[in-house]
Specification:
The complex is a heterodimer of chains A (113) and B (215). By secondary structure, chain A is an alpha+beta fold. Chain A has helices spanning 3-20, 69-83; strands at residues 24-32, 35-43, 46-55, 94-102, 105-109. Chain A starts with a helix and ends with a strand. Chain B has 215 residues and is α/β, with parallel strands linked by helices. The chains are: A alpha+beta (113), B alpha/beta (215).
């Protein structure tokens, strides 16, 4: 199994968990010039940018700590580019969540960073 | 994503962005598929969005491969606030005409969505029965993201119907040509005559029927 297919499986688990708690998935693997956002969703009026983290073992720290400073900055840049698709004046709130997948179980961390 | 693809997607949302900037939140896109074929219903889809559709390869249904189209249709339905398929039957096409039947299918698609839109974008058509804000866009499936989305959902739905029809009537090759008047379809029509799913009001079908030997 290559890393790409592992990633997709984790994103599928994450997406169905998010739908289960009431999010509407706007896009998966949304590509921006700055990089990729795993999942963009709507939670009510809020647009949420979600990073999916899969960890097979705790050996290198938990999944949420894997979203390091550099990665957070890249996700923020992608998000700000994405938000330009909404017209000026549209006061849409945004948020950054992380979904960790450990042993096949999804955990949602709202407002992760 | 390359800068160029991002710009393409931004252009594809020009009408949607204009409506959003006016304070409109829910935009419906309506498009039709199956005006031209000799057989099968005409299908329309209505897709309601409240956010941009940033789906890789989103384009009008004619410019997307079949496999990508099916994946896109799933992503569109997932991202949309609501969607609905409307159709007009072969009987209705023959009773009125294809243009009126298409309008009927579009009206049914719009009437069926669970979230009422604030504005409607339609490909090259106006719906006289709709009282709200509507904008008709020539070549809309290539210029508007929400119309392109509707065209993809409609196309995938109709193709699946024609594949089912192919199982019931395998000699015509519906799964391949989806009812359009290809050489293979015309030759099957001449040999086997029209089915109840053929549009008798269409000249090539009538001609094939006239040529059938009386049994």
């Amino acid at each position: 199994m290559n890393t790409r297919s592992v990633g997709n499986t984790a994103e599928d688990i994450a997406a169905s968990h998010l739908q289960h708690v009431g999010y509407r998935i706007l896009g998966r693997n949304v590509r921006m010039p700055e990089g990729e956002i795993d999942i963009v969703a709507r939670d009510g009026a809020v647009v949420v940018f979600i990073e999916v983290k899969m960890r097979r073992s705790q050996r290198f720290g938990s999944a949420v700590s894997a979203v390091d400073y550099k990665k957070r900055r890249r996700i923020r840049e992608c998000a700000s580019n994405y938000m330009q698709f909404f017209p000026e004046g549209a006061k849409t709130m945004i948020r950054f969540d992380v979904v960790t997948i450990e042993h096949g179980t999804a955990t949602l961390i709202r407002n992760a960073f | 994503m390359k800068e160029a693809e991002r710009e393409r997607l931004e252009r594809l949302h020009q009408f949607e962005r204009e409506l959003w900037s006016q304070g409109i939140t829910h935009i419906a896109g309506i498009d039709e598929v199956g005006r031209g074929p000799l057989a099968g219903p005409v299908i329309a889809a209505c897709v309601v969005i409240d956010a941009p559709l940033l789906l890789a390869g989103l384009n009008d249904s004619k410019r997307v491969s079949e496999r990508r189209r099916e994946a896109l249709a799933r992503e569109i339905v997932e991202a949309a606030c609501a969607h609905h398929i409307g159709s007009a039957s072969v009987e209705e096409i023959d009773l009125h005409n294809i243009s009126e039947a298409t309008k009927l299918a579009m009206e049914r698609a719009l009437a069926g969505v669970k979230v009422q839109p604030d504005a409607v974008l339609i490909d090259a058509m106006r719906l006289p029965s709709y009282r709200g804000v509507q904008k008709s866009i020539i070549d809309g499936d290539a210029l508007s993201a929400v119309i392109a989305a509707a065209s993809i959902v409609a196309k995938v739905h109709r193709d699946a119907l024609l594949v089912q029809l192919d199982e019931a009537y395998p000699v015509y090759g519906f799964a391949k040509h989806k009812g359009y008047g290809t050489a293979a379809h015309m030759s099957a029509l001449k040999t086997h005559g029209p089915t109840e799913h053929h549009r008798m009001s269409f000249a090539p079908v009538r001609a094939a029927h006239a040529r059938m030997p009386v049994r």
